[in-house]
Amino acid sequence: MCGEFTPPSVVYGVVYDRNRRGVADQGVSETWVCRAVVTDDTLTVDRCAPVEDWFDDPESPDTTASSSSDAPDGRLPLTTFLADLPPTAAAGIDFPFGLPERVVAEDTWTEFLRTLPTWCTSPADLRWRCERRVRLVDGSSDIRVRATDAPLSALSPFDDRIVASTFFGLRDVLRPLVLTDRVRVPPMTVPQSDRPFVIEVYPAGTLVDLELFSDDSDEASDPVRREATVDGLAEAADCVLDVDRTAHERIVGDDAALESLVAAYAVYRNTRTAASLRVSDPRRHIEGQVFV
Fold first, then answer.
1. pTM
2. Residue 70 class from Cβ within 10 Å (0-12 exposed, 13-18 middle, 19+ buried)?
3. Higher model confidence: residue 20 or residue 155?
4. Furthest CA-CA distance within the chain
């Protein structure tokens, strides 16, 4: 993949704008970012906060950006944040990075991103065009999901519940970063030593893999349950997980904050070697790959 590959020394987990998934208080961004520093076999979580708060942090990647962006949902702050990550960093974000191959007309993922704004103009338009393409191809339900989604029982990228995250994430977050070559996105674009890289993660899938997932929504929203999940993650992790006290308080106080911690761990466990980022299925170079 890349002879000069070096594991990142800092990883970020991003839970993208939960308000686009039907959460209350519309208009208030809930894009959370969790940072963890890698030293030897230890993962030290030193900050967890909404993305806008990072721009008030003198140690954040961009100290000149402002949280007064015209984008109320945090899309532009997130794009700016990721663009200014150092080459030694990697980030994981939890929205679909692509569409099913048979829905995509372009030959490469980068070209798909380039032409996306001319193909659809809104989440509803994206869903309509994808459904139309499905019907034209063969109409079967199996082409509504990507190869990477099926083993995880994940939703289709253009399912009503997540199509807004897919559309805005692809158009407003990934597209400008990829077309300006500010980040690399394996397996679709090859990691490079002088660029940070970004991968798609799925915190619920990571928790399932670690046997820590609970589908009891009442229990999952309880701080006691979140505390137990943090403890379980520390026990199951293939490293020493050290969480700063302030970050710990944020994580046990909010579901999105907890998911951003799990996302950061997923980045860590999937970026120790170049081999862990490789995929053999050519479909995934168009559709994307979820790293749990």
1. 0.89
2. exposed
3. 155
4. 54
